[in-house]
């Protein structure tokens, strides 16, 4: 959607606020309302069949988006896309948890989560080319086609692994969730929320995305305003340096987590990543325009070095934290647990984060002028420090338990 904003806005005569609703908040609200039910459904039915249906519906709705007559109808299609996507993360991570033992799970999860980052890079390059060449309506038809093929593979080719087949190695006989294998939706939700380790982990992950997603959404605009790049230059650099480094960072953290978890505990990796990522992103936002550019590649601001480092380290929480989450809840409640986390991440990261930066930028514009976005992003990304605090609390809590999730 990011590369379609301008042509859609021009055709429908929409405002920036309306486009913000279309690309962010409208999707996030519907996802929030449907995510928990979708996660519980993934705990009850075949996950491969559920993902096949999700991909099929997603492809059909995306194709229909290309024939919408106005802004309202396109917004409705966008909301229906949120419904189609609601079970994807919870069902997929539940499948991965039952396909890989815990000692190999982090890298498997990192491969899955890095897919979204690679998709963003493709969208900023190939997607922009298609929109420019064929138009935004035809592009919707193009990107809907692979989903139909994926749906076919999921339904007819991919097997459904045994649910909870690797849980014996990590389960605790004293866990309050262990006997709750057949509880209903409300009882399962209450049981999950009673776990302090689960609450700390989910809150830390969600707060981390508040600043990170705002950074991803506004980074290209920041480069245009504060480093005098063209929009195409800014989009390419944000995608290549920021998105590329993030994808490599997710894969690296998954690889490292599988190797250090047994010796030092899995939480040191996200804590270190958050701290280093925050330090580099502060340097990036405060780096003066033009400083050091002659020491870097021609046409590329020296500040992009710090953008790359920040993007690389700031995603080190993703795979370790998701792996830890899958290891502290029983298999019959795993998809629900993941969906609860995904709902909060979507609401804060997609719904609140980018909007908060826009509001702060407007507030600071009277005193900072064109540089108001720089300081708005500084404030929003500082929420990472809250995530660090929560992870330290979680590590302290785990140390007090007689049986830890990962030994």
TrEMBL record:
Any one GO molecular-function label of the UniProt entry: transmembrane transporter activity
Keywords attached to this Swiss-Prot or TrEMBL record, sorted alphabetically, are:
Membrane, Transmembrane, Transmembrane helix, Transport
Give all residue intervals belonging to the Major facilitator superfamily (MFS) profile domain. Answer: 1-399
Provide the protein's localization: Membrane
Topology relative to the lipid bilayer, per the entry, is: Multi-pass membrane protein
Keyword Transport listed? The answer is yes
- Source domain of life is Bacteria
The principal location of this protein is membrane
Name any one Pfam family assigned in the record.
Answer: MFS_1
Indicate what this protein is called per its UniProt record.
Transporter
User: What organism is recorded for this protein?
Assistant: Pseudoalteromonas translucida (strain TAC 125)
């Amino acid at each position: 959607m990011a590369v379609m904003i301008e042509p859609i806005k021009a055709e429908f005569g929409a405002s920036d606020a309306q486009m913000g609703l279309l690309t962010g908040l409208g999707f996030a609200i519907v996802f929030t309302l449907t995510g928990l039910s979708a996660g519980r459904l993934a705990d009850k039915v075949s996950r491969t069949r559920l993902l096949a249906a999700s991909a099929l519906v997603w492809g059909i709705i995306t194709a229909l988006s290309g024939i919408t007559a106005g802004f309202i109808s396109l917004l409705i299609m966008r909301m229906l896309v949120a419904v189609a996507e609601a079970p994807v993360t919870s069902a997929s991570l539940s499948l991965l948890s039952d396909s890989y033992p815990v000692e190999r799970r982090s890298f498997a999860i990192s491969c899955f989560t890095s897919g979204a980052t690679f998709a963003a890079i493709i969208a900023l390059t190939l997607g922009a080319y298609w929109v420019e060449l064929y138009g935004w309506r035809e592009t919707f038809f193009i990107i809907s086609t692979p989903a139909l093929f994926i749906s076919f593979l999921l339904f007819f080719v991919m097997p459904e692994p045994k649910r909870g087949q690797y849980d014996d190695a990590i389960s605790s006989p004293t866990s309050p969730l262990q006997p709750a294998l057949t509880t209903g939706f409300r009882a399962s939700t209450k049981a999950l929320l009673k776990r302090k380790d689960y609450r700390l982990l989910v809150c830390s992950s969600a707060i981390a995305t508040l600043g990170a997603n705002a950074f991803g959404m506004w980074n290209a605009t920041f480069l245009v305003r504060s480093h005098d790049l063209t929009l195409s230059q800014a989009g390419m650099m944000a995608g290549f340096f920021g998105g590329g480094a993030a994808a490599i960072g997710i894969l690296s953290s998954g690889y490292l987590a599988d190797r250090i978890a047994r010796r030092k505990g899995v939480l040191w990796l996200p804590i270190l990543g958050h701290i280093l990522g925050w330090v580099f992103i502060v340097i990036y936002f405060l780096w003066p325009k033009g400083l050091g550019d002659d020491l870097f590649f021609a046409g590329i601001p020296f500040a992009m070095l710090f953008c790359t480092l920040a993007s690389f380290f700031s995603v080190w929480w993703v795979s370790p934290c998701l792996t830890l989450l899958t290891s502290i809840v029983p298999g019959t409640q795993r998809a629900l647990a993941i969906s609860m986390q995904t709902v909060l991440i979507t609401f804060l990261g997609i719904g609140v984060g980018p909007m908060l930066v826009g509001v702060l930028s407007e507030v600071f514009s009277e005193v900072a002028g064109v540089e108001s976005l720089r300081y708005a992003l500084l404030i929003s990304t500082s929420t990472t420090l809250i995530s660090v605090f929560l992870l330290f609390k979680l590590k302290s809590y785990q140390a007090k338990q007689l049986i830890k999730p990962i030994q």
